[in-house]
Write a structure and sequence with these properties.
By secondary structure, the chain is an alpha/beta fold. The chain folds into two domains: about 120 residues, Immunoglobulin-like, CATH 2.60.40.10; about 350 residues, TIM Barrel (Alpha-Beta Barrel), CATH 3.20.20. The strands form four sheets. Strands 9-10-11-12-13-14-16-18 form an eight-stranded parallel beta barrel. A hairpin with a 4-residue loop joins strand 4 and strand 5. Helix 3 packs parallel to helix 5 and helix 12 packs parallel to helix 13.
Length: about 500
Amino acid sequence: MKLGLKKKRNVVLALSLFGVLLVVIPQRVLASDSRPLAPSACTAIRSLDGSSIDVEWKPANKDNADRYIVERRRNEGRWYWAGRAEAPATSFTDNTLRTQDDYKIRVYTRRADGVKSGVRPCVLTTQSVPSPSGSPDRGKVPESSSSGADAAPVPSPTEQDSSNAGSEVDSPEPPKETSPAATPKPVQASGPVPVPACGAYWGSYVNSRIHGGGNDASARLRAINNVEGQIGRTFDIDHQFYRWDDFATDHNVENYITKTIEQGRIPFLSWKPVNRDNSNVSWKSISNGQFDNMIRKNAATVKSLGVPVMMVFDHEANGRVGGYSADKSATSHVTTKSGSEAEFVAAWRHVHNVFAQEGVTNVSWAWVMTRTPFAGDATFADRMYPGDAYVDWVGLDPYNFFHGGKTWRDLDELMGGFTNWVDTRGIDKPWILGEWGSVEDPNNPGRKGQWYNNAANYIKSEPRLKALVHFESSPTYNWRFDSSSSSKAAFIAAGNQSYFEQSC
């Protein structure tokens, strides 16, 4: 499907499945749902002179749409109708677009009876060289694929806030900045979630108990919509945490994931092998096939979503080696030994392989640890890494804890050990921050705001860092963006920079 438009700028949707527990939606529910889904991918190609944009997308596998509606948004204003495309393909031009303005473009689906859903923001790229005919070169819509093969081989706030789980100030429109020059470094574009050609995804985990007043599907949507209303944009990635048996027992799961997809976000699903009753699921029991029926059921559910998703198996698993617990007094923490590093690797590979056997090609596997494995010679990280054939994105959860005013660290410093490990091992996967944040300095009310400013500058200087997922919660430490007026203003300004809308 193609659509010729004039001028610039798109927001990208990404899907992520990472971390604590995987979310599964009963396939029979999805199969019987006749609502159209979002196109499975969308790319906008901007001409070298900036005078035109060609938009291309791929229908979803279960696409029941009779037509596709294209909308544009100019200079952060309202969304406007830009055209209609009917299957199999329609091309048209909107001559009202102006080359001096900035645009975002999105596509959604609609049935003949008016039912609509499945908003898909489009990834913006720029034509690299003029084609011989003088017309723009067309880029390919990202294909869905997954990797698979056999190969040998600081406590996180998530542990204190594993349930799914504002100062008011108006932030001025940030000036259009030029990203600092950075040395190009190779990034392997593996997995079905597109790696942004420009900039990075801006996502969040939003604690619905704090922002939405509950934990069901409606509360989760209310929470993320509340936060997005304050920051003035839609998150690219929505991180949600699920325990081992959540998919089988939580009927809100299916409702929430489909809704967040429809609202234009990439699901980032964390599946943790800990049951709702806090009983531990050992890695060995997973790798020996004891839970294959559950894994296959969840794989079928993820496959039926029909859109790229990010997934993480046992987010921050380094904290569960040998009975590790951040706080031994916290009864909600699992102190049972989950297994050895080798047993974790075996469990990761087994889950990955079962998904591959079930034909799941819409999952990007993200491996995310805390900073601990990368300390010293980083051999701990080596022992926890499943191997390049089993991982699409590599990640870290960096936090500025400040610990009683002793250890204030900017993001670039927090990333040091991880960066050294990636460089030394020659890993060319895209990077994701599965969680990140900072506390306030009680003696310097503006320091957290400056921390966000510094973080944004660092991120723009590191081209391998392609996705960030803020931890919007306040368990023991207050990581919320609105913990002070200066923090709120800085977070809003950072998130609305063109770099974090993949439009740089």
